[in-house]
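Protocol step 4 of 5: obtain the predicted structure for the target chain.
Materials: sequence only (see below). No template structures provided, no constraints applied. The aim of this step is simply to have a reference model before the mutagenesis design in step 5. Sequence pasted as it appears in the construct record:
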Amino acid sequence: MLLGLAISCTGMGLGGPWLLLLLPGWAVTLHGMRNLRMMIYHQCSHRNMYRKRRLDAAIGRATSSLLIIQNFARYSREHVSDHHAAHHMTLRDPTVQAFLVSLDLHPGMTRRQMWRRVLGKIFSPWFHLNFAVARARSFWHDSDTSEKAISVGLYGTAMAATVATGTWPMLIVAWLVPLFPLFQVSNTLRLCVKHTFPAADVTERRGKEYFGSLTNAIFIGEAAPSPALPPVRRIAAWGRWATRMLFVHAPARYLVLTGDTVVHDFHHRYPSTPKWANYIFERQADADKGSPGWPEYRHAWGLVPAINLVFDSLSVADPEEYSVTRLREVSKRELFAAFDD
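Step 4 output (structure tokens):
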């Protein structure tokens, strides 16, 4: 995050064509924010970062104070009790509530309709304003006194320093742009690949076979061109492949599917494993062993196909089971907090 800030501030300080440095600056800053949220904060909620309760909680509270996300105690409680338990992918699950209410996606909608609605959201200033306000409220409401103090201290000092030195535009452009609109776009796309919805004809809603079927890995990339192609076509195919790897798959991995999100299925099978830092290799090792006690691992190739898989599962899900009218009460303050794991 500090490196990204330095790049962005350098570009703004030099001005002119150097303003293009904002693009890599924003990307590096956002990547740091997302890894901090998706890896460190998440593992701290499972008391699994250093496996020391007080230290993990202290890191979690500091993270929520910096990123203005749902306060650590509330997130830890809801994440473990509703997202990693029998209520997974039911109306009790905050992830399902975020789909039905925040994104306004429902069974019976086509994949195209869902894409249009999601794209409309991420380009909507009103959506981002609501998202930002909800984030701030979910952080402040019932947060620990230390969390409030850290956040007020950090942002109060930053605002005072930048106003005093006349550098407040750098605070807004270099930090707040990645922190709010860019972070929230990444949030939304990430939500759309987290879990598939169970089919309407699935009656057995318990056990490892069922819960293991609700999460897929996402492999970033695509098959290399066939060496059997004629020379001219092979050169063109390699050019297309390299272009897509560089400008489609790499940004998806760096800005959206950061950390262990690409193998979230492994996390749901072993949420408290001390080997979480080697997630990709541990998942492969488990797959090579046949994933004892669990169904065979499944995966999709690329961000867009993974989103399509989730959208298609919601499209054919039971409309009565996932009817928004069955939600007795949903706190809008907490809805946007469910956009992450």
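Step 4 remarks: The longest strand covers residues 217-219. The CA atoms of residues 236 and 331 lie 52 Å apart.
Proceed to step 5.
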